[in-house]
Write a structure and sequence with these properties.
This protein has five helices and four strands; from the N terminus they run E-H-H-E-E-H-H-E-H. By secondary structure, it is an alpha+beta fold. It has a four-stranded antiparallel β-sheet.
Length: about 100
C-alpha cells in the first residue's frame, strides 16, 4: 500500500537530511521504501510516495511524536496532504520506444 504525502518546505536542501535521518523510524513502523518528487518555485513543494506493509502500521507511525519533531526541524511549513493509493497498473514504454 502506498501513501502519498505532499507538503511545502522552507528549504528542500535543509529538509532532505532530516527526512533521511528519520528513515530508521519509518522502517521500524513497516515503511518499505520511498520516492521523492519536488516541484514549485525553488523546488520546495515535496511529494513523497512511501510504501508500507500495512495502513495500520503507517497510522502508528503518524502518531509517533518523533514525526512532528522531524517535520518541524526539517522546516515543513504546510500541513501535509495525504492520500492512500493502491497500485493498479505499471507499464513501461521503454521497449516500444527502442523499436
Amino acid at each position: 500500500m502506498e501513501l502519498i504525502i505532499q507538503h511545502t518546505v522552507r528549504d528542500f536542501d535543509a529538509w532532505k537530511p532530516v527526512f533521511d535521518e528519520h528513515e530508521t523510524v519509518r522502517a521500524r513502523y513497516g515503511c518499505l521504501g520511498h520516492t521523492i518528487y519536488r516541484g514549485g518555485e525553488g523546488g520546495n513543494e515535496v511529494t513523497a510516495i512511501t510504501s508500507w506493509e500495512s495502513r495500520e502500521r503507517a497510522e502508528e507511525f503518524a502518531r509517533d511524536p518523533s514525526l512532528r519533531e522531524a517535520m518541524e526541524r526539517g522546516g515543513v511549513v504546510s500541513e501535509p496532504r495525504i492520500q492512500w493509493v493502491e497500485a493498479f497498473e505499471t507499464r513501461s514504454y521503454a521497449a516500444s520506444r527502442a523499436a
